[in-house]
Amino acid sequence: MPVRRTLAVGFLLASSLLALVGCTVGGSVAESTTPSPAPARTTPEPTSVDPVPAVDPLDVVVALVARPTALELRASDASVVDQIDYLGSAADAVATLTALFGTDPIDESYAATNHAPAGIRHVWGTLTIDERLYDEAMRAEKGLAGSLVWPNVAVYFDAADNGEIALSTVQGYAAGDDWATVSAAADVVANPSGCTGPAAELGDDPVEDTQVAVVLSHEDGGDAVLSVAAPVPFYTDGCV
After folding, report:
1. Three-class DSSP category at 23
2. pLDDT digit string (tens) for 178-189?
3. What is the spatial distance between Cα 8 and Cα 13, in angstroms, rounded to a whole number?
4. How many CA atoms lie within 13 A of 219 on its CB side?
5. Beta partners for residue 127, in sequence order
6. In terms of pLDDT, which residue wins out, 42 or 125?
7. Which strand ranges, in their side-by-side order, compose the sheet holding 199-204?
C-alpha cells in the first residue's frame, strides 16, 4: 500500500476515534455522572392541642362555715378553698360571694344608732354580709385598729343553705336546728351575761382582752335556731 494512502486511512481512523471519545465524554456519560438535586425537606405541621380550661376554685365550694375570725369557703372534703377575713375589704367580700352565687346581692343601707355605726347589708337570699361603716378616726382613738370588736364585715345565716351552698358553724349547726338540742350541746358555750346567745365557737380578739364568737340566736318561745352570726364580741360580765 502506498505510504500516502496508509497515512490517510490512519488519519481517518484517528479522527473517528476522537469523535467517538468526544461524544461519550460530552454526552451520555457526563450526564449520568451529574448528581440529582436532593429532595426539599418539608417541616411537619405542628399538632394542635386543645387548651385545658382553667378550673375556678369557687366551682368546688359546697359550704360556707362561719368561724370567729373569718368566713370559710369549703369543698366537699371540708378543705378550705378560700376565706373572707372580717377585718378585710368589704368590696372583696362582696366580689367573692357574687362570683360564688353568680348574682349580685340586694344592698340595704341602714342608719347609725347610739350603739352601732351606719352600714350596708349585702343580701344573697339567706346569707347577709354586714358592711360596718365605722368612723376610722374613732377606731384609731379607741385603739380598735385590727380588732374584731369593730370588724369591717360580719356574716349572718338565717337558713341551713343558700341554694346548693350549705351554711353552718364548724360543728354543722345551722339555722332551723332544734334549739333545745343545740343550746344544750357540750360544745356550745352559754353566755352568763345573757347579752348574746350561746357561742358555737370562741376565738381571741387580736387586740382587745375579750373573745369573739360565732353566736346562735333564737326568738323567745321559739323552738329552732333563728340565725348564726359572726363575729360577735362575747362579753360575759355585762352588755356594752
Report:
1. helix
2. 999 999 999 999
3. 9
4. 8
5. 124, 157
6. 125
7. 106-110, 119-124, 127-132, 153-157, 227-233, 211-217, 199-204
